[in-house]
Amino acid sequence: MVPMAIENILMVDERPDREFAAYILQKEGYSVDVVGGLEQARARLAQGRPDVLIVDCQPACAESVQLVENLKSDPLTAEIPIVAFTACPHLADPCPTCQSGFDRAIPAQMVDQLPATLDELLRGPVA
């Protein structure tokens, strides 16, 4: 799945393996900006609106959820699709914290599903 236009993805992830996820998305044609924490994410969001935000909600779960809630309540950012991409063990059994306000949640070990998930969020389900 190659994006029709280059979509800008902001990935917020403190884990060292985040570069692999970014590589997979770049290989599919996405432009990916990776930041290592929520403060850096807030700074990047102040500079411009990404097409999709990917957040690892595990290291600072409550802060991540607060960021998502703030973005969803702001008319300027409410429409940004937000994906929880996390190693959180609770995703198999829906975790209200990790899914609160997120448009999708993907376990980190399923990194290969990121491009299809982003494609669906940006263009809708394939018929």
Strands, helices and their partners?
Elements: E1 8-12, H1 18-27, E2 31-35, H2 38-47, E3 52-55, H3 61-73, E4 82-86, H4 96-99, E5 104-107, H5 114-123
Parallel strand pairs: 1-2, 1-3, 3-4, 4-5
Description:
The chain has 127 residues and is of the alpha/beta class. It has one domain: 3-Layer(aba) Sandwich (Rossmann fold). The chain has five helices and five strands, in the order βαβαβαβαβα. The protein has a five-stranded parallel β-sheet with strand order 2-1-3-4-5. It is globular. The mean pLDDT is 80.
Features:
127 residues, alpha/beta, Rossmann fold, five-stranded parallel beta sheet, 5 strands, 37% helix
The CATH topology: Rossmann fold
Query: What is the molecular shape?
Result: globular
Helix content: 25-40%
Give the overall average pLDDT. 80
| E-strand count | 5
Tell me, what is the CATH class? Alpha Beta
- First and last CA, distance: 14 Å
Poorly predicted tracts of residues: none
Number of helices: 5
Structural class: alpha/beta
CATH architecture: 3-Layer(aba) Sandwich
In short:
With 127 residues, the protein is α/β, with parallel strands linked by helices. It contains five helices and five strands, in the order βαβαβαβαβα.
